[in-house]
Every structure is written in structure tokens, then in C-alpha cells.
Amino acid sequence: MSTNQISIEAGSAHYKARSLRRFMILLAMGGALFLSFAIDLATGPANYPLSDVIATLLDPWSASDQMRVVIWEIRMPIALMALTVGAALSTAGAQMQTILANPLASPFTLGISAAAGFGAALALVLGVALLPAFVDFIIPINAFVMAMATALIIHFFSRMRGVTVETIVLLGIALVFTFNALLALLQYLASEQALAAVVFWTMGSLVKATWTKVAVTAIAVAIALPLFVRQAWALTALRLGDAKAESFGVNVQGLRLRTMLIVSMLAAIPVSFVGTIGFIGLVGPHIARMLVGEDQRFFLPASVLCGALILSATSVLSKLLIPGAILPIGVITALVGVPFFFSLIFASRRKSW
Amino acid sequence: MVTLRLNDIGTRYGNVQVVSGITTPVIQPGTVTAVIGPNAAGKSSLFKRIAGLAKGTGVVELGTKTKDRNTICYMPQDTGSTAVLTVYESIILAAKQGSSLRVKADELERIDEILAALRISNLSGRNLGELSGGQRQLVAIAQTLVRDPKILLMDEPTSALDLHRQMEVLSFMRDIAKGQNIIVLIAIHDLNHALQYCDQAMAIRDGRMVAFGPCAEVIDRDLLRDVYQVDGHVELNSLGHRHVVLRGPSDQTDSRHDTAILRNPRNETALAAQ
Fold first, then answer.
1. Which of A218, A248, B84, B249 has its CA 20 to 30 A from that of A15?
2. B136, closest residue in chain A (CA to CA)
3. Where among B102, B120, B148 does a domain terminate?
4. What sign has the CA pseudo-torsion A70, A76, A79, A85?
């Protein structure tokens, strides 16, 4: 039953070429990310020439005190926060879409961000700590507990017999509405000061970034990624359907639960620091999928880079749209990200889910 | 050498006992066994139980101590996939589960060979979503073969294939079973194909095994009536092959439980020998 030699090797040749191309795409995305990060550092109300910014980056003590503070203490945490938050949310979205077999899954669309937001508002408005042991980190811990609880609700609901992809989306919408209503109730009860904090927070903004917040978010991503990489083959196999993945020897239920727990951490931590920044978790993985497909060895890094790049570029936009003002980044991601996303879907016309 | 013997195998789906008390003689390597029976007879559940994917009672005896994740491979009925993966990637995926992220040159070579043997090299760069039902079944067979199983459980692998491909695949699987000395169990509806390509047959109805033995002994007028509720008989065709001739649905469908005959000659002798 053999055919000629050329066509036999066509499969592996095609695969190798494809893998190389994907590797190049990842490199290009890395390059674009670095560029965007540099521009992010160079833009802001204080107009410094790019060459001075680079000089300050390379040798902080050669620059003026003012310049050093602006670049290293103000702009750098914000720029890094954009990278880490973008990476975390996009990774969370990518793995939610994978384990729920649902192109509409993301922390934002399934109510995990809204739950985290409600948890944070509980702390901001009422001072309620959901885990009394950690009062110093009351806002992120509250956000995390609520996000985790919601992720588990979605997880167990998705395991029930007869539950379809559409049911999960409906459940997500119900959760979003529920938590938004609860958040509105808290806003109604809140003092003027607390209200301002909650409103600012629900818009999503990077300007309150600190080195500590950057570090915590980066650590969350650094913990999650190796765990996902180790399961790269199994997670990819999930996309072939449960029956097929099981027949390959994948413990489907266990993998889903573990992944959902990591995802809720990845979604909750950024939300607790920078508020609800929507659509990164939805758009990032979709762009990654269009570029490199769904082999997790490429899809995972591509999702990370995509999310980081989108939020970094949005951070630049938020400073440029109205000169002298920094718009809340959550507003920009929604206003710019969504039409961009649709244009991608309609332009490519390629079946990418 | 891996052999297979089922000892009082049973399994449930939810609260329903879908397979119970299935005991077979030792199934030898190099053989193809047709698993036959009507829809919902318990064929898929039996396969999942054998592969360890469903919990249940009884013992799956392999005649060997060394067993890994690829010793018994179950090929489920195809459900399709929307994944943005090529055929080639999906086969790598089957081969690499539980091992390193790096794909070596000899692994690629082996996949090339399997695709060529199944004559689907031309599909390797296609996305899974673009395949027809028949093409998906061929890809699923490649995904199973690449794991180098010792026992291969195929759940209706030819249901979406055209006539030519059905015969090609069954004859290919028979060659694989003989050539690589492995055990192949195929759940199949076409009894003529079972007669032509399989060494023996296991007939299942309502989760119980009602017959096990050479195809010529198992597939007969009684089986058609009792297991499938159809009127028909088996005769020799002009090529000298046994051939099922069907007349139509049996009139006795209502009383099928009364007329059930447990015919299990091999099994009884095997049990008696113990």
C-alpha cells in the first residue's frame, strides 16, 4: 500500500515548515512586544526624547533625578503591569476556551472578572474580608476567593449531564448580571470616597501600578505557565473532544479541575490590582489561534505574548488619544479591542474555531 | 506476549448496568475479533471497560505483567472536532501523550509511514474541521496505530467509509493484526464484512455475551433472529464465502426475550476446563 517516496515525506516536511513558521511568528511577536514596551516607556505627559529614555533605562544614575523618577518609578511599573496583566488575562482566557471547548469563554464573559470585582468592592466598601487571616491583602484575596468560587461553579455546572456550550455561556451571562447587580448595590451603599474608588476600579486602570503589584502578577504567571506547559499535550488533546482525549490516556476530569483553579488565580490577581479590563482574555487567545493554531506548545506562548502586546499597545493608546490625559485602559480595550477583533474575524474568514 | 481474556466483566453507565458477566476464552494475538450486536447492546461500554476508561467489575487478563498507557488502545466512535489542528498534528498528539514536548525525527518518520499505509498522506496538512466523516475515521485509525498498541479496540471504525474504503481498511487491519501480532477487536454492523475479514465473533445483546466463536459458527440464522430480530439465513455465495441473506425485520420482536438462547460453545468448554 505504499506510495512514492516524495509524497510519503510530504507530511513531515509540511509539519516542519509549519513549526518553523510558528516559531518565527512567536519571535516577531516578542519583537513587537519589546517595541511596544519601549514606546510605552517613552510616552507620557512629560515629553522626553526617545534617546534620553533609552539612556535612562541603560544607566539610571546618569539621568536627572526627575527623569529617573518618571521613567523608573512612574512609567516602568505601569508598562510592566500592562505586560503581566495582559499575559495573565490572555492565558486565563486561552485555557478557559480550551477546557470548556467554548470560543466565548474568558474571565470577562463568564463572570469571573465580575465576581472578582464584587469581592474587591466588598473590601473597599464594607471592609469585609473573605479570608480573615490575610487582612493586609484584603482586596486581592477577596477578589481571588470570589473568582475561584465562580470558576468552580462554572466547572461543576459544565460537568453536569446535558449541559452544552450554549448553556455555559448563558450561565456566564447570568453570573455577570448577578455580580454587577451586587456591585451596584454596594455602590449604592458606599460612602463618597469608597464609591470613587469602586468606580475608578470598575473602569480598569493601570495608573495605580506599583512594583509589588507587578511582582505578584508576574509570580502568578510564572507559577501558572510551567504547570500548563507540562500538560501541553493533554490540553491540546482536549480540543479533540473528551472521548478522544480519554482514549489517549488523558485524565480529562482532573485536568479540567486543575486548569480551572489555575485560571481563576490568573484571572483574579490582575482584576484585584487593576480592575476589570475586559476583552483581553477573549481577543488575545483568538488572535493567537489565528496565528499559530491550537498546538499548546505554540498556542500558549502566543496567547501570553498576544495578551501582553495588546495591553501594552493599549496602554500607549490611552496616553496618546487625549494628549496630556491618561484614559482608563479598560475603556480603551473595549472601544478599540472589540471592533479590532470583529475586523479580524470577518477579514480572515478562515475557520478558526 | 499479550493475550486477552475477559473474566466476568461488567460495567454501569449511571444507574444502568450496561454490560454484565462477559467471560471469554483467551483471545490470541494475530487475530481479529468482530464484536457484533444491535445498537446500545453495550459494545462501546465493553470496550471502555476493557481499556480501563470505565470502572466496573471483573478482570481483564492480559497474560503479561508489562502494561503501559498504549498497551490497550481504544478508538472511540468519531465525533468530529473544531480544533485548529492539522491531521498531522493530531497524530503527533496521539503519539506524544505523557512524553516530552520535543518531536524527534524518527517519530515523524513513523507518522509519515502510517499515513502512507492508510493512503492519506495527502490529508496531512489539512485542518481537522475540513475533513469528511470518512477521512476523520481514517485519521482516527492513524492516531491509534501510531501508539503501537498490543490490543486494539475499534468502535465502528468503518461506519462512515465508502464500500471500497471499508474493505480496504478491514483488510488492512487484518494484515496489521497478523503482521504485528496484535489483538484487534472491531465493533461492526456489517455481518458480511465480519464473515470475510474477522477470525472470530463475539455477539452481544442487552449487555450480555450470547455467543463467541469462529464467525462461521456465531453468525447464523438463530443469531439474526435472536440478536438482531431479522429474518434471514447464511449461505455460500458464488465465491465460496459465507454470506448473510436478509429477508426483513423479524415478526417476533415482541417475544425476543422469551426466545433468547444462550449459545456460547467456546466459553462453556473454557469454563468447564477450569
1. A248
2. A240
3. B148
4. negative
